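Can anyone check this?
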Amino acid sequence: MRKYERLFFCGINDLNDELREMIRENDWGGLILYPNVIQDTYKLTEFFNIIESNGKKCLISSDHEGGQIETIPFIPPFPGNMALGKTRPEYARKYAYLSGNIMKSIGFNTVFAPVLDLYTPKNSAVVGFRTLGGEPVKVAKYSNEMLKGYKDAGILACVKHFPGHGKAFTDSHEMDVIIDASPEALKSEDFVPFKLAIESGVELIMTAHVIYSSIDTLPATLSKKVINDILKNEFEYDGVVLTDAIEMKAISEKFSPKEILEKFFNAGGDMILLSNGVKNFPIFYKALEELLNEGRIDENKLENSVVKIKKLIDRYYHKQSVGFINSTVEESIEVNFDNVKPALNVILLIPQPQKMSQADILSDHYIKIEKLARKILGAKIFRYDMKKPKKVDLPGDALIIDIIVDTFKNENLLKFHKSLPQNTIYVISHDPYDKKFFEDRNYAITYSMTPVSITAIFKRVKEFLSGF
């Protein structure tokens, strides 16, 4: 097992076999989930199921700040920090506590929030209304309330972007960013919220890929003057220092992985954030090993960082998560694909959206299932009328996935389904009694019409087709 995997906070953009294997093999310090995983319920539950089944303990985060950046769909929409800064501090604490509790119930234990950058006129859109305002003391007060709310909810908050991104008029995702403010201006303005956060016990701080010309010619992320001299010595911060995403162009286009690692760790930093963990972790870990072999990084320093990161994991990691939902789906479905033949084209045959009773919302499910079929399988969609089904002209070389809903109630509907080509998978979703009509065919029984259950079948089909 590698020794310094904990020094990396890896971004997860999708779930695939390569990621599953990397999670099994590595003990990363942190994982941040991006919207493509979070907003697809099946992927979200599968991710936490992977974490639990492999017995992994790490920090698990999102960028859900509220307002301009909202990545977790289960948290109620919020006006955002700028609007919040026009109201009362108690709302800041309430929102952090509300959203933090929801995050924790899903399985998150960390959030990359709050934003402590100050608003300045004409600042970059990357800051926008993510900032609480332009008054240092007010931003400090409101953000401190948010820190209390997250803490009360059991969520590790990461303040950002030290020492302040607010005076930047360009975006460090895309280009170099230079701030020419004087040391006096930074101390009386941008540093204020961070200083109060440190005094209040913040445990995780993210750096900015911004050059503060009055302090150093290097971006803050790589600057010993910023991280060691100001953050650690002057402000007496002894928590974990995390980079912003290393793939951002302000860093990645000017410095090699070895240069980034050497400068950051020697400046006093602790964790590297890789927005594309699957692609870039092997590159950066190899670079770290080379630096250690060359004696260009103090190994004792890295050991101290690992200890600090492990303490955070022990303090905030919890087993509660939505991973059991994935297990519930997988353990409940029945599948018989014995006679399925591979096909280049997939067709989803699904009832026209309608309610079966006043006690369901199946019509909403149908729409979501159609979108998932297109996304996962690239399927074409054909709808049929459950009351008066008519013959559908389907390509003979396609694999058909036929969503079955209460066929036993309608003889014409049964004939319609039975007349479909042999290469059809009948998905019995609403009443398992329908199984008796299709036992001699390819079928799946989900005992559910929810998208999370039907998605499990789509994924089984995708895995089957990928084998040919």
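Reply from J.R.: I decoded it. Residues 7 and 271 are 5 Å apart (CA to CA).
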